[in-house]
Amino acid sequence: MRTKRELNQSLGEQVVWLRASALSFDAGSTSESKRTAVAIRTLVHDTASSRGLLGQLKMRDRMTWLSSVQFDGTGFTGPPWLESPHEPGFEHLPGMPQFTCTFDQWWRGRLFEFNGSDIDRA
User: Fold this and answer.
1) Above 80 in pLDDT, residue 88?
2) Which of 4, 10, 33, 9 shows the shortest CA–CA distance to 21?
3) What is the pTM of this model?
4) Among the ranges given (6-15, 86-95, 96-105), the one the predictor scored with the smallest mean pLDDT
5) What is the DSSP string of the chain?
6) 18 contacts 39 by C-beta, under 8 angstroms
7) What is the predicted pLDDT for the residue at 49?
8) Average pLDDT over residues 87-105
9) 67 with 97: CB under 8 angstroms?
10) Which value, to the nearest 10 degrees, does the dihedral of the CA atoms of residues 42, 46, 52, 54 take?
């Protein structure tokens, strides 16, 4: 088991990597979305044999989670990401995320429906 100091050091590294990936993605490297997804999984995903870093630090469920679109009780009122302007239904979402939710809402909340199945982040 890692010490709290080691966990905090790992958290700092994840934040640095996320910032670098965001800058690279914003500069046009869309493949950075895959590295971003891996970092998010490292931070929050729990399995039968492992816990996400924020859970190990007892931070995940105390944090306020933000979304660019509102959570309506069962899911988000629209996809909480920016789509390509070339895709049908594109809507520019200006500014920073403005809606709050719990981690469970953010992680398990319905993002959209595909072939009759709800799709969430988990």
Assistant:
1) no
2) 33
3) 0.77
4) 86-95
5) ---HHHHHHHHHHHHHHHHHHHHHHHTT-TTHHHHHHHHHHHHH---SS---HHHHTT-GGGSPEEESS-B-SSBBSS-SSPPPTTSTT-----SS--EEE-HHHHHHSB-EEETTEEE---
6) yes
7) 94
8) 75
9) yes
10) 130
CB contact set of 5 (below 8 Å; sequence gap of 6+): none
pLDDT on residue 10: 97
- Residue 15 sits at φ, ψ, to 5 deg, of -65, -45
Residues whose CB falls within 8 Å of the CB of residue 84, separated by 6 or more in sequence, listed in order: 90
Count of CB atoms within 10 A of residue 92's CB? 7
Write the pLDDT tens digit of every residue in 48-75: 999 999 999 999 999 999 887 788 888 8
CA 48 to chain centre: 21
**65-78 burial: b if 16+ Cβ within 10 Å, else e:** bebbbebeeebbeb
